[in-house]
Amino acid sequence: MSALSKQKFTSRRVVGALRTLLGRLARAYGWYFALQFVTRFVRRVVSTIVKVRKLKQQNVYQSPCCPILGHVREVKENFDRLLDFRLDAIKESKAKTVLRLGLVCSDRIQMLTTDPIVVKYILKDNFRNWDKPSGNENFFFKYFRAWLGVGIFTLHHSNKYGEYDTWKLQRKLASSIFTKNNFRTYMYDVFQERASTLVDHMRCGARAAAAAHEVYEIDMQQKLFGYTMDSIMRIFFSQKTETVTGENEGFPSAFDEAHRAHFELIVKNVGLLTLAKLLPWPFGPLSGSNVTTGIIPWCIMTLSPLGSRFKRAITRIREETRKVIENKLEDPATATSNDLLSYFLRARDDDGVPFSDAKYTEFLSGVVRSMVIAGRDTTACLMSWTFFMLTAHPDIQNRLYEEIMTNIGDGEPRFDLLAAQQMPYLNGVVYETLRLHPPVPVDPKTCIEEDTLPDGTRVPAGTTIMYFPWGMGRDPAVYEDPLAMKPERWIPFKEPDLYKFPVFQAGSRQCLGMNMAIYEAKLVIVNLIRAFKFTLKPGEEENITYSPMITMSIKNGSGSYKLLLHAEERQPQGLRHRSTEA
Ligand code: HEM
């Protein structure tokens, strides 16, 4: 045999051997794939069936649904009225805690509650066992953290995740800003200055429209999100932005984009992501590792237009956050400033290392992002719904105007003047809006270990209970004629029990910004209502609905988030009196 044919023979043998090896590997992987898939599938299905059966034996109500698909089809069909759909389940059950099911192979037991006793149990009595969902098991939470970072809003507090100390520290540091003195001085100055800017901006718009003999139409929700953004940029980071006048689109639009893309990503891909959990690596996650690893989640995030949109928004948020922190680090005033980020940058860890150290960059990024969503979206939702309610009920708007003019007139709406005792009707309007349109309408907590609820129901480890402020505020057993807007319900004012009214959560993780949000909303309402008379754009009322996201903003038909109002400038008070006298 010549040297050449010998070489050809050898390489043919090598190729043949390789082919055989690859064939065997592929076959072996095929077996591994099938075995893993079947094992994961069967394990999850059996686990779900056993858990559901145990709960039903304890008389936990579950509304009718397909045994394989759970309530998935119903949720999709009712997506635009998700909160009503959930409330229907509570109503038809006649119980306050009901079972909701996902796909039978998802191994997720979800319960929904409007029972204050259960709310108190999970938020206070056994708080350490009821945490935010696990990022490894729950893709919604995993992606939530991808854009919000690891900050007070997303940190776990149970022993399982080792994040308790960081959460506690962030809570302690963040609390330092919410003092009465700060409300009366620093926050008042910022809120009032920002409100004056908003009123002036709207006056210009109204006068231009009047000069052109047109009605002044304004997207109030956009303005109010702009207002809260500019206020918290000052209060938390000492930065002056002008979102209200359209000059700061970076941070807010990246946040909105990430929030919406996150939600759509989950809704559109819930089936695929659930399937991916069942597939072995590399298609799905390695057993025990986080659910967003593997080829399928990677393709969704990287190749789908929605995933790319989400990733771009996250990159923008990171970039904007980095700028906020860098500006603060370079600013000599940080050493004495009253803003929240300065408090953090001046603090030190247990080893004496300041949080301004480079090793805390990611920590600070989480702080900034959590505080932006906490301070901006929720309060803007509250104010947007308030203006919707005031335009839907012109008589209430008139009565509120009278109270404002009688008690404050053109004067400064200082902190103490806005208290419930001084302005009971204003306070009633705000609380009625919070009752009917809570900015966080539903909030899930997951138990780490098996637990027994106060009524004796044993729930398995991993059960999620969603407490439901939106449903609780509409309970006819608690509120007579619950769908009617009646600010008088809250006069005279008695602080509601937060477990019965958990709009700001309650217990150990109660919202830190509750007083700030209520104060800010009242101050803005006073400034706007005394300057303008608002009406809803004709034909809008029937389009207004809620967006079923983490924070419940106003949705206007499909895909639009506008609250279109007509604003008519009121005559300044002095002029009003003169013309009346004349
Ligand atoms: C109407 C306005 C607001 C509502 C309805 C609201 C509601 C809530 C709710 C339901 C939670 C619990 C979230 C969870 O952990 O599951 C929360 C937490 C929190 N809120 Fe608010 N919030 C509002 C405004 C604010 C404002 C203006 C701030 C200002 C900084 C703020 C700061 C926080 C913080 C820091 C937390 C996390 C507390 C913790 O986990 O320890 N909130 N809020």
Q: What's the short version?
A:
The protein is of the alpha+beta class. Helices cover 54% and strands 8% of the residues. Helix 7 packs antiparallel against helix 8 and helix 9 crosses helix 11 (305-330).
**Which shape, going by the Cα principal axes?**
globular
Please outline the major beta sheet.
Answer: 6 strands, mixed
- Unreliable stretches: 574-582
- Please provide the count of β strands: 13
Please identify, by name, the CATH architecture of the domain at 167-269 and 304-569: Orthogonal Bundle
CATH topology type of the domain at 167-269 and 304-569: Cytochrome p450
**How many helical stretches?**
18
Please identify the structural class as seen in this structure.
Answer: alpha+beta
Q: Rg to the nearest angstrom?
A: 27 Å
CATH superfamily of the domain at 167-269 and 304-569: Cytochrome P450
Please state the average pLDDT score. Answer: 91
Small-molecule binders: protoporphyrin IX containing FE
Helical coverage, percent range: 40-55%
Report on this structure.
Helices cover 54% and strands 8% of the residues. By secondary structure, the protein is of the alpha+beta class. The chain has a domain at 167-269 and 304-569: Orthogonal Bundle (Cytochrome p450), CATH 1.10.630.10. A six-stranded mixed β-sheet has the order 1-2-3-9-6-4, with helices on both faces. It has a three-stranded antiparallel β-sheet with strand order 5-13-10. The longest helix is centred in the first third of the chain and has 55 residues, at 3-57. It starts with a helix and ends with a helix. It binds protoporphyrin IX containing FE (HEM). Protoporphyrin IX containing FE (HEM) is lined by residues 152-153, 171, 174, 371, 374-375, 378-379, 382, 439-440, 443, 503-505, 509, 511-513, 516-517.
